Amino acid sequence: MSFFGKLKERMFRSSSKLDEGLDALVAAEPAPEAPDAPIPSPAPIVAPDGSKPGLLSRLTGRQDAPRRVLDDAFVEELEDLLVQADLGVDTALKVTANIAAGRFGRRVTTAEIKEALAAEIARIMEPVARPLPLYAKKPQVVLVVGVNGAGKTTTIGKLASQFRAAGKSVIIAAGDTFRAAAVEQLQVWGQRAGVPVMTAPEGSDPASLAFDALTRAQAEGADLLMIDTAGRLQNRADLMEELAKIVRVLRKKDPSAPHNTLLVLDATTGQNALTQVEVFRQMANVSGLIMTKLDGTARGGVLVALADRFGLPIHAIGVGEQIEDLDAFDPQDFAAALTGTESR
Ligand SMILES: Nc1nc2c(ncn2[C@@H]2O[C@H](COP(=O)(O)OP(=O)(O)OP(=O)(O)O)[C@@H](O)[C@H]2O)c(=O)[nH]1
């Protein structure tokens, strides 16, 4: 199945929410307020090119798509709908203002609003849609950060598998040494991807494991070293110190490491993802994002808010629990899936 087909199918719940909301918005043409208020004469149905509809289309009703005047009430309802779809207040206001510009006071159809919304979303997402950059430098050190449960382990496994398929040699370091279950999970993913996973005794210093892993990666001439990290936000100071130490120690072996710091975010957390970006940016030099669990969530809109607020590259999106369920981020497809329009 094409990327768009898969995304659309899997984001069905997100798109249908916004999709249906937009349909309802246009259908909800408010009745005139007072009985003695002048009833506005219906606007002539004129095609976008200015021509009147022909007899056949008038008879078949194809020109009769519901229309609603884009007025202040419409603008407010559209803003609310976008906030509910997790675009965040600032982005929702901006997007709505852009859609209203040039259309205010006109009678619009749902299709026109959906197309305009998809175009606005794609415009915001375009600059951030960038795959993980691969450098000539070997080994390229990729530090993976994010709260527990965001999908770090799964994403590392999926990425490792894709790099392997592209002919790259990869080593994984299980840096969350405080949770035996996390280490075991990563070992399972390493096996699936066919990639060695370096571990350390439970409770040992993750920085020391990172150092050993980089030593091995350099010795073996590996292309990539991916380092998993803990995600205990409950003790922020400790986590910050832990991440800082990993970076300090890596730089003893390679002053340019880490070459990427990926923040993994869970789409189902909605607006909370914005806070996580802020927190992790204070703790680590986040260079890009991967958003997981976009399948089956109604909260995919948060990606638009993230792109608009932070402008950090979105390297990939997780659309399922299987090893192949990590896709490149395509802004046109994403906008189409979210708004229920056809991708260009
Ligand atoms: N539906 C879906 N589930 C996902 C996706 N990515 C990860 N998951 C699931 O999310 C859960 C947590 O994923 P992990 O990879 O263990 O998350 P983590 O951040 O490593 O969490 P800890 O191991 O607790 O540190 C698992 O059940 C995964 O199968 C995704 O893109 N879609």
Automatic annotation (TrEMBL):
Segments of this protein annotated with the region Disordered: 32-60
GO BP term, example: SRP-dependent cotranslational protein targeting to membrane
One GO term describing the cellular component: plasma membrane
Keywords: Cell membrane, Cytoplasm, GTP-binding, Hydrolase, Membrane, Nucleotide-binding, Receptor
Cytoplasm keyword on record: yes
Residues reported to bind GTP: 146-153, 228-232, 292-295
Start and end residues of each Signal recognition particle SRP54 helical bundle domain: 55-125
Biased segments, Pro residues type: 32-45
Major subcellular location class: membrane
Enzyme class: hydrolase
Xref: InterPro entries: AAA+_ATPase (IPR003593), P-loop_NTPase (IPR027417), Signal_recog_particl_SRP54_hlx (IPR013822), SR_rcpt_FtsY (IPR004390), SRP/SRP_N (IPR036225), SRP54_GTPase_dom (IPR000897), SRP54_N_sf (IPR042101)
GO molecular function terms attached to this record: GTP binding; GTPase activity; signal recognition particle binding
EC number: 3.6.5.4
Catalytic reaction equation(s): GTP + H2O = GDP + phosphate + H(+)
Domain AAA+ ATPase: from-to ranges: 138-321
Protein's job: Involved in targeting and insertion of nascent membrane proteins into the cytoplasmic membrane. Acts as a receptor for the complex formed by the signal recognition particle (SRP) and the ribosome-nascent chain (RNC). Interaction with SRP-RNC leads to the transfer of the RNC complex to the Sec translocase for insertion into the membrane, the hydrolysis of GTP by both Ffh and FtsY, and the dissociation of the SRP-FtsY complex into the individual components.
Subunit comment: Part of the signal recognition particle protein translocation system, which is composed of SRP and FtsY. SRP is a ribonucleoprotein composed of Ffh and a 4.5S RNA molecule.
HAMAP family: FtsY
Entry similarity comment: Belongs to the GTP-binding SRP family. FtsY subfamily.
Annotated NCBIfam families: ftsY (TIGR00064)
Protein's recorded name: Signal recognition particle receptor FtsY
Organism per entry: Pararhodobacter aggregans
